[in-house]
Amino acid sequence: MSSLTPLPFTRPKHILSARQFGRPFLDYMYELINQIRKFDKTKDGLMYLQSLLAHRRAMLYFTQPSTRTFLSFQAACHILGIKPAEIRDPSTSSERKGESLEDSLRTFASYVDLIVMRSPTAGLSDRIATLLDETPRPVPIINAGSGPDEHPTQALLDIYTLQRSFRSSSGIEGKTICMVGDLKRGRTVRSLSHLLTNYPGVRLIFCSPQAFRIEDDLRQFLRSGGVQFEETPDFHQAIAAADAIYMTRVQDEYDVQGSVKVDYQAYCLRYEHLERLKSHCVIMHPLPRRDELDPAIDADPRAKYWRQERNGMWTRVALITILMGVDNHIVLPTL
Ligand code: CP
Predict the structure, then answer these.
(1) d(Cα 91, Cα 182) in Å, to the nearest integer?
(2) Which residues sit opposite 115 in a β-bridge?
(3) Is residue 12 included in any domain, yes or no?
(4) 55: number of Cβ within 10 Å
(5) Residue 63's domain spans which residues?
(6) How many domains does the chain have?
(7) Distance from the CA of 299 to the center of ligand 1, in angstroms?
(8) 160 vs 91, which has greater pLDDT?
(9) Same domain for 265 and 122?
């Protein structure tokens, strides 16, 4: 049997922000996911994974719509033997009777060992983690998307997908990554940009209409980290320069009454654009998509978004093993 080397980082108590992860964590996570995926090949392997946390329970508290993040966390719980409970609509919980969010979350912690939460409110998972840390029963919190602010587990699965896609071309270092779309309110873009600062030589191109440019805090963060980046409205030039393109949809769930509608048509990747891309270009999208990503592209070998989605499940399995302290049980059987 072979096992992974001891942790080269402090074990996180929670997963709240992409900013909490450095390169040793990212490299370890990549190796761990690859190891975990090997267990998927046999029934015995899957039964072994199911035994790791069969004594644990989780709450999936998703008060903002989700398909893949919810389902992949639910699947990750099942893979590890964790029994998940869920609330997806606060009108079915005692919040409807006036219970505060804080009391609701503290109540979950009375019954489960892990809370995964998605919310429309920026910073909420940080607040809840701080609150629960001061109680006699603190449990790990995973931020599964917090308003337009952060989506750290999406960014971690994006890094895994990039690293895997570039494994035969010296990794993510030195690559040009082009992010397209609603970069102002796209939390996946914010979290992924933070993680990409861990890879020397990465150049970021942010391509968007004027109204959807990145926020100033991200601009300052990249400048202070010495990261090479540019902002451009020129879609054709940006996609031609990219080693990876990260498409995003308009986040109009954050539109307030009176918001100006932005013409997005110039920021849609169409089948006819494929000939402009580098032959090795990786096409990604956190999904769900609308018309910014042509389904005719799905069959192109450079399209990685369906793998990215599946990678999300294994990434979340790995993250839960790290949080719950069973990652050191992931070993390779000798063949
Ligand atoms: N990428 C992502 O967060 O998808 P869902 O909103 O479907 O969870």
Answers:
(1) 30
(2) 59, 141
(3) no
(4) 10
(5) 18-150+312-329
(6) 2
(7) 22
(8) 160
(9) no
Residues 45 and 91 occupy one common structural domain: yes
Residue of the CA atom closest to atom 1 of ligand 1: 286
Instruction: Please give the average per-residue pLDDT across 97-106, as a whole number.
Output: 95
Q: Compute the distance from residue 335 Cα to the ligand 1 centre, in Å.
A: 37
Q: What is the pLDDT of residues 73-98, one digit of tens each?
A: 999 999 999 999 999 998 999 999 99
**Residue nearest ligand 1's atom 5 by CA:** 66
Q: What is the CATH number of the domain that holds 115?
A: 3.40.50.1370
| R_g of the chain computed on alpha carbons | 20
Ligand 1, atom 6, residue with closest C-alpha: 66
Q: Let me know whether 70 and 133 are in one domain.
A: yes
Rounded to whole angstroms, what are the CA distances from 57 to 109, 127, 165, 227, 246? 10, 22, 34, 41, 34
Distance 272 CA to ligand 1 centre (A): 27
Q: Both 158 and 305 in a single domain?
A: yes
| Ligand 1 atom closest to Cα of residue 69 | 8
The pick from 60, 66, 313 for probing ligand 1's pocket by mutation, whose C-beta has the most ligand atoms within 8 angstroms, reads 66
Q: Are 95 and 26 contained in the same domain?
A: yes
Ligand 1 lining (C-beta closer than 6 Å): 66-70, 145, 154, 286-288
Distance 141 CA to ligand 1 centre (A): 18
Q: Give the contacts of 175 (CB within 8 A, at least 6 positions apart).
A: 162, 166, 199, 201, 202, 203, 243, 244
Q: Which residue has a Cα nearest atom 4 of ligand 1?
A: 68
| Domain identity same for 195 and 139 | no
Sheet holding 203-207, edge to edge: 228-232, 203-207, 176-180, 244-247, 282-284
Q: What is the mean pLDDT of residues 164-169?
A: 97
